[in-house]
Write a structure and sequence with these properties.
By secondary structure, the chain is of the alpha+beta class. The chain contains two helices and two strands, in the order H-H-E-E. It has a two-stranded antiparallel sheet.
């Protein structure tokens, strides 16, 4: 009988329910602890043997296969986009509220729209 106890029991606050991604990661760690526990109870295992190495390799493979629960914006950056438009012709009256430009139905009027897009 081995005097080594191997167990993975995460400390969780009362009433806390981990997300599905965290639950999968906890399950992976519990599986790894189970493999080491099974290795520790084998009576014919030398202190360090190829069984230990195989157990470590298996642990690494399991961890590598488990998706890590990165936050949503871990690989993204939030950006702010500003559009500034300028329409020509515009009325010559000063002030915030500009008056409409009068055009007769028989006239043609070219409208020019210019804009700047800023991202930060």
């Amino acid at each position: 009988i081995s005097d080594t106890e191997i167990e993975f029991v995460p400390d969780q606050m009362e009433g806390y329910s981990p997300s599905i991604q965290i639950q999968a990661l906890i399950k992976t760690f519990q599986n790894i602890a189970g493999e080491f526990r099974a290795l520790a109870v084998k009576p014919d295992t030398a202190p360090i043997s190829h069984h230990h190495t195989a157990c470590i390799f298996s642990s690494v493979r399991q961890l590598h296969a488990s998706p890590l629960p990165y936050p949503r914006f871990f690989f993204q950056s939030l950006q702010e986009t500003k559009l500034k438009l300028s329409v020509s012709p515009h009325s010559r009256s000063a002030g915030i509220e500009q008056q409409p430009v009068s055009v007769k139905t028989s006239e043609l009027l070219a409208i020019k729209v210019e804009g700047v897009i800023e991202r930060s």
